[in-house]
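Slide 14.
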Amino acid sequence: MASRLEEILKEREKKVETLKLMGVELYPARSEKQAENQIVVDNFEKYDGKEMILAGRIMAWREHGKLIFGQIQDQSGRIQLFIRADGMGPTDKEKQTLGFEDLELLDIGDIIQAGGQIVKTRTGEVSLQVSAIKLLAKSRLPLPDKWAGIENPDEAFRKRYLDLLMDSEKMRRFERKAKFWEVTRSFLKNKGFIEVETPVLESVTGGADAKPFVTHMNAIDQDFFLRISTELYQKRLIGAGYEKIYTIGPNFRNEGMDDEHLPEYYQCEWYWAYADYRDNMELVKELFRYIAKEVYGKTKFVSRGMEYDLAHEWAEIDYVEIIKEKLGIDIFKSTDEEMLAAVKKSGVVLTGAINRSRLIDNCWKIIRKTIAGPAYLINEPKFMSPLAKSKPENPELTERFHVIIAGSELGNGYTELNDPEDQRARFEEQQAQREAGDEEAQMLDTDFVEMLEYGMPPTSGWGHSERLFWFLEDISGREGVLFPPLRVKK
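Slide 15: predicted structure.
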């Protein structure tokens, strides 16, 4: 016995064959669309009585004898179709329009072009009173249930086109994401920054503690890495004489995937010559507030169950002191065993190479989860910040800061290290950790050190990823990108 789906597919194929015999193009190249559906609905007074051609996908279709009520959906939204048998002509092969008697060949999911007059029905709904319909794309497969949508989350990500089609709020989310980056660019432009391009493929990767993806370039028979940061190339441009530059683009980290981390994600990173980390702290705060107001029209948010207001004063949290206060750990004096015990007590499971820096970082992460913010984390130790300048009054600490919101780090900046001798020494220390098994430790980049030997001005840099957008939306990373990575379905 055939399943209901099999019956639907057979019915649709019969309609396809009938349309072909009638000479109706199933997928014509030419179409016409004079306005977005939602604009017409929202501005009825402007369009009342006008003849319009609209287009979209059929999302509802109800036949009542000589009347049909339908809905078509475009990117902006839906509009009702009001179709009367006596208001339409016969099917016209030359014009490729369907008469009322042949509308039964249409299905929910078909994309059509509809012409007619903008009216309001007796119930007050803005509608297109249709006089002509042209098929633009025939849907061979039925859409998911309009109420349940795609119930399996992985299937929704895999068939994101259906997920978005059936859920207009998700469509709006990604429009907000586009605006998120748009206002970021406009903010930086107004501050005098210019956007630059840096390589995605790097022979030596750096700028962050992360495990890179490796690939091979056949043209020169050499391995390359997908970038984990744009930092070292942007600093080369600062050395060249640019003073305010930024990049927005994809970074890649070959690590775990969870609600806050994806192997591929978008990052904004900028460098500002003749500025220090305190200057950047103020600029970052101004940007975050600007994004919140321009994209969402507010500064108060709830993320991961934590409330925060970006308009409030941003507290400063001392890295060394907060770990001492909350865990009784002195990161300069406590033993590795004491730190390991504190980490294990919190339930954290450590994987990969375990060294002092990783232990300290995990001590901090235990505390970070409880901080709603907005706050700055400052005074990170030198041995954990290989690219940051030391504080003049305490060389063991650096002029570095992180922004903490809803228990997470949403960006990181510092006064850049520009002393070539100090930079080489820190790179060599990182390289030693890497050779000891720490795949996230940074590589020795001798070309970058050589640039510093020519001289790079005092500079401050900052980077934040699209995680900020995920938090403002209060969604996971997979929900925040259009096409998250998935295992191939077998």
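Speaker note: The longest strand covers residues 51-64.
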